[in-house]
Each structure stands twice: as C-alpha cells, then as structure tokens.
Amino acid sequence: MAKRWSVAVVGVPVVFALLYLGGWPIAILFAAAAGLGAWECYRLADRGEVAALDGLGVASAAALVLFGAWRPTFAGFAPPALALLGALTIVALVVAMRVRGPSRKPLEVVAITVFGALYAGLSLAFVPLLHALPTVSGWGGADTGSWGGLLVVALPLAATWIGDALALYAGRAWGHGGLAPTISPKKSWVGVWAGLAGAAAAGALWWAVARPFLPGMPIESPFLAAVVGVFLGVGAILGDLAESLLKREAGVKDSGAVIPGHGGVLDRLDALTFTVPGAFAALALLEFVS
To answer: Which of 84, 156, 208, 277 is most buried (CB neighbours < 10 A)?
Structure first.
C-alpha cells in the first residue's frame, strides 16, 4: 500500500502538469504508455501460446497517439490512423507468412498484433484529441489560458477515479460479488451502483469547476454533466471487466509489474481505455446537436 500511495503522490501531479502543458509532452507520455500497454497485452497472449509481432504492434500503438497530437481533430486524425492500421494488418500478414508459417497460428498472431495496437493505442490517441477540443471548438473564455485542455481531459479521469473509489469502498463494505462471477468474482452490484453515483457526482463537480473556464462547452447544466458522468461510469466498469477478462484467460492477477504497487500499465488504464474515447464521443455529440 505504501508503494501504491508513493507512486500516486508523485505520478498524479506529473500527469496533470503535462496535461497543463499539452502538446508533444503529453503526447510522448501517453505514446509511451500505449506502447507499454500493447507490450503487456502481447505478454498475456504469450500465455496462450500466441507470439504476437511485438515490435510492429508496440510501434503502431505509440504512433497512433503521436498521430493524435499531430492532427488533433477527429477529421484530421482518422485518415492517418486508418492508413496505419491498414498497413499494420498487411505488414503483419506478410511477416507472419515469412517467420511464422501455417503451423504457428498466423491468424491469431496477426489478430492479436492488431488488437494490441488498437486496445492500447487507439484509446489513448483520444487524449490529445480531447485536449484540443476547447481550442478547436472555441469553448474557451478570457480566463481559459492553458487550463482548457487539462479540464476537458480531467472529465473522464474524475468520473473514472471517483467512481472507482466509491465502487471499491461500497463493494468491500456491503457487496458480495455477483456482477460477473467468472470474470471478476469480487465485483458486486452494490459496487456498480455506488460507482455510477460517484461518476455522476464527479461529472457535476467537474462542471462546477470547468464552466467558468469553458463557457462555450456544450454541457450546459450540472444535471447534463451528471448524465455524462453516468455514461462514463458505465464505460469504466466495462473497461475494467474487459481487462479482467484478458487477465482471467491468461491466468494472471496483474498485466505487468512496471508500476510499483499498481501492477502493469493496463491495470491503471483499463477503465480509461473506454472512458477517454467515451468522453470525446459524448462531448463531440453534444457539440454537434447544440
């Protein structure tokens, strides 16, 4: 527990400082996280005797995040990202033909290689896209400065972390499993409802903090912010269960050991792989209809 708190005390301020700076500093951090996440995904696949093409997948996961920083709008990001994923699929097939052959699970090798890049890289590529939304969409005011991008990225972070904390507390105090016994036996419906309540509260609290800095944002009331928080809370639960499913198949407790006291990168990013793209989708949709 001491290691867990030590990492959090150092790591969280560093992440928020980089989010304040934005641009390439935050892109490099999350590109490294995406690469490590893809590598951990491939280590899970190793336990099922599927040897992914690590170098291709790790590089592609990191490149997706860097593409997000290079072209920080969805319209700008989508073409190079799609081209990269197409190229990854073709190159992986050619390499599998060359070095794997039909006896070494080429279909699974290619599928896992592309999946790892998508799972770790595409989700985190939405961090720079989210960060750029206030500037691209003109949400800022006179006092926004460098706070706009940080505040928008803070929405999925707050909904995820506060919801997760309340779910953990309520689940330990009153829950008795039952949500997904074969995937994550300790998760309970009590924890689910507490987590969704926490995510809703986080959304409303986020709105109160962010609104003065982002007067043009499409979330115009704390109630709507709470609804978005619930949506992100559902995404956090699904993201957590998705990673638990992969670990359960591999027969491991943690995806890795790169973060002392926390396990692997995927163990810290599991919920965010759903909530970060979910936040971008929710905000973009609200901007479209407003």
So the answer is: 156
